[in-house]
Amino acid sequence: MKPSNHSIDFATVLGSAVHDMKNSLCLLIQSIENLGQSMSETDPTTNEHFASAHYEAARLNTGLVQLLSLYRAGLENMPLNIDEHYIEEVVDELKASNESYLNHKNMILEVEQSADLVWYLDADLIGILINDVLINAMRYSKSHIKLSVYTEDDFLVFRIEDDGPGYPQRMLDANEITMQNYDISQGRTGLGLFFARLIAQAHTNKELHGQIKLENGGALGGSIFELKLP
Asked: Model pTM?
């Protein structure tokens, strides 16, 4: 049999496959959420299994979104859908999507936000970015997470703090990671930071660019993730 003269565009096939898997995974996450809402008082082991399923499904979804966005960014600049958004609505959606996980883990999500905040941003990408940070905070914190949203020096700031053990030194050292020096051995930790920085820096206003910062300490003594958008 003669080989085909048509070469397979693997990147396009991968992009389509990731998109389909993402859609299926979103349905799975919705099913997990519905299951959690229908669960009555259960034993701690059942709660732990539910929380673990929710966490892993959410992480898989974020990973697929990252792959799809990086694929698209490889074709052109990171595609953004910038529009005016009420930040309170963005935060409310984040709270609603993680309500079941918080309840089953007996965690407190404290939210502080300036009133009537309106900003121009890609709400979908920013929501994915912040949600991934919250999921990690819920995984590693003890019982308390704080999300603060406010403006500072012409930037909109999302600040997530927790009472966990803090970021390991390798993540703090990777604060300035770029794709050129990204090491695959770092796993999704490095890719997640790169993806977050890619989204942040794609948000621009005149000479200002978005940025992220990782550190430890703060009011709760654990990890601190800060996203600043111009």
From this structure: 0.72
